[in-house]
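Entry 14. Structure prediction run on the chain below.
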Amino acid sequence: MDSESGKSEVVTTVVDEGTGDSSGLNQSVADAPVTVVIPAFNEAETIGPVVEQLQKHVDTLVKEVIVVDDGSTDETGEIATRLGATVIRHVRNRGYGAALKLGIRRAQTEFVLTMDADGQHSGSQLIPLWHEHENADMVVGARKKALHSPIWRMPGKWLLSAMANYLMGEKIPDLNSGLRLIRREVALKYLHICPSGFSLSTTMTLALLNRKWRVEWVPIEVSPRAGRSTVSVATGLETVVLILRLMSLFHPLRVFLPLSVCIGIVGVLWGTPYVLTGGGVSIGAMLAFVTSVLLFSLGLICDQISQLRLERYE
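Output returned:
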C-alpha cells in the first residue's frame, strides 16, 4: 500500500514458463474476485492500452492481470511488465489455447476473465459481464456485429456455428467470443479436452452447454483489431478438422444416428425390388445394411468415450 496516496500498487512479477510464483500482488487486492488472463503474441502495439484500461478496476474487481506472452518476438512482455501486469512467458509460441490454459491454471481467484490483446475488447466490458455472474457459471460477451471477422473467415465460422447449434439443440449467440467471465473451478474441469489453438473458446462453450452449466450471453461492441491478425488460411482450413472433432466429442449420436438411418433406408429401397421379384438380396443393399449397423455401433462407442472424457474431472 502506498502510504502517501492510499492507493494500491500492483507489483509485477515476471516468470518463465513452469517456474516461480506469478502472484505479483499487494495484500490490498487480495480479496478481489477476478483474475484477467490475456494471451498475447506480438501485440506490442495494443497490449499497453488494454492493460491500462484494466488497471482502473484493480482494488475493486480485478485482483491480478496476467499477460501470457506466447513467445512474442517484439516488446509485448516488456510493455505489459512496465504497466504492472503479471507476465508469464512461453519460451516459444504454443498457441492461443495453450496460453489461456496456463493463465487460468495460474489464477488464484474464483472468477477468470479472458480477453484478447489486440484491442478488440475494452476493460470497461468487465462490468456488464460481472453483473451477470451470480446467474451463470460462464458469461460470454456476444458480439453484436454480424461481420466481426475478415470476410474470408466468415463461411467457416457460419458453418461451425450451424453445426454447434445442431449439436446443442439451441441457438448459440456467439460461439467463440474471446471475452468471457468464467468460474475458475468450472473451467479447470474441461481444460483437458480443450486444444492449444484458437478453438479453445469454441470447445469450452460447447462443453459447458453439454454438461448443463449455466451460460449467459451479454451483448458487446468490439473494435477493429489493430495490427495484423495471426489467424492464417491454414487456421481456416483447420475448421473442417475442428468440426469433425467436435462432432465426435459432443453428442456423436446426433451425427452417426441420422447417417445410419439414411443409409439403412437406402438399403431398404435398393433391396426391396430384388426381394419382391424373387432375386434375393442384392450386394448393394447388403453393403448399405452393414454400413448402417457399423455407423450406429460407432456412434454408440463414440458416445461412451465422449461421456468418459467429459466426466474425467467431474
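Residues 1-28 have pLDDT under 50 and may be disordered.
Filed with the rest of this week's runs.
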